[in-house]
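Long-time lurker. I teach an intro course on protein structure, and each term I like to show students one example going from raw sequence to a predicted 3D structure in token notation. This year I'd like something fresh instead of my usual example. Would anyone be willing to generate the tokens for the chain below so I can use it in lecture? Attribution to the forum is fine with me.
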Amino acid sequence: MYQARLWGVSFLLLWAVVGCGGGGTNSPPSLSPVSIIVSVPTRQGAPPVAKVVVKVTGPELEGTLTYELPYDAENHQATGTLQVPNGIDRLFVVEALAAEGEVLYTGQTGLVDVDPVQNDPITLELWPSSGRFGWTVFHFNLLDAIPSAYPGIGRIRACYSPFRDGQSPNTGVYPSEEEMREDLTLLQPLVKAVRTFGATHGLERIPVIAQELGIACLAGAWIGKDNEANQQEIQNLIAIAQAGQAEKVAVGSEVLLRGDLTEAELIALIQQVKQQVSVPLSTGAIYQTWLDHPDLAEACDYLLVHAYPYWEGFPAERALERTQTAYQQLKTAYPQKPLVLGEVGWPSGGQTQGQAVPNSVSQRRFVRQVVEWAEAEGMEVYLFEAFDEQWKTAEEGSVGAHWGLFLSDRTMKPEMRKIWF
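-- Reply from a regular --
Happy to contribute to a lecture. Here you go:
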């Protein structure tokens, strides 16, 4: 996205600290049952497991709630039903302990919402804990230790624009190939595919590097008002596709929304590329553009859809609903066309847009909701975006710099880490 947006059992429950002050005016939140099944590994030379405890934390909980699960040593499993306070973002940390209290194995869930109506069972496999035993030392750091297995949202698809602080396509300051390789190497354990937006000024190297790292690519050409620049973008995109470096391609992004070309002009460019590539082809557009331009949809092999409930002013609690509604509208309008959500996200900061308030917690919750929805429905979804980009503030206001899963300094946002680890 290179341009500004224009659219608008019964268990011992130990309450470490629970509302006890104020003359008894505070009361604990209501409880709901949460079933949990914990698999405990065995390691040669390790002490036997004496008990398994679950520690629950979360917003509005004053301290840590600790539960003890009955442990079946023969089957190496602890199971039961916990009565957990209702609310969002409950973190379940499970520890298998030796008789003297040493933590032998540990594990944790992603953040879980506990609902008074229905809660999905939690199934968790523990890992050896770091400690004094010589048989195993394991530090729970997935990026370093188990790069192919992830709790939480797992490997995703993400939009990747490589501009760092001080760089901008508007000023002609582009990232180096070394910087892009650093980015993709950082992303490789976390993403299975990236979407790109440009194919000149060195950006055409992104699909090459991605392929070397085993990351799939939806490659894009940036299309604007300059016909000569457009042709260079298209020729490079064709070369990328013909070299087998992209699983799909996209000719432009929100071209009609910006008014850079007419529908006929954009379709002509799409047809030019279509004659020379064998991979599925589309252009990126918001859902309303697709609804308003059936001829454009007909010219494409699939619809590359952008959905931004933030820009439409929807509150965060309705963001997923809005995205699902837009998606369903397009499925109804174009039942024979495959749909790919090419851009969908929520900002972690910046200016308010209607009822849409950017913040890091809303971003994390929306990202998790979208990924879980996509997985359940078998959808292809690209989260917007991998990294914060400071240059976008000039065109989108302060919110432009806050769409990334990572900060612009390439550190993962703390709220994002909660749903990966």
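Some talking points for your students: Residues 141 and 421 are 8 Å apart (CA to CA). Residues 156-420 form a domain with the TIM Barrel fold (CATH 3.20.20.80).
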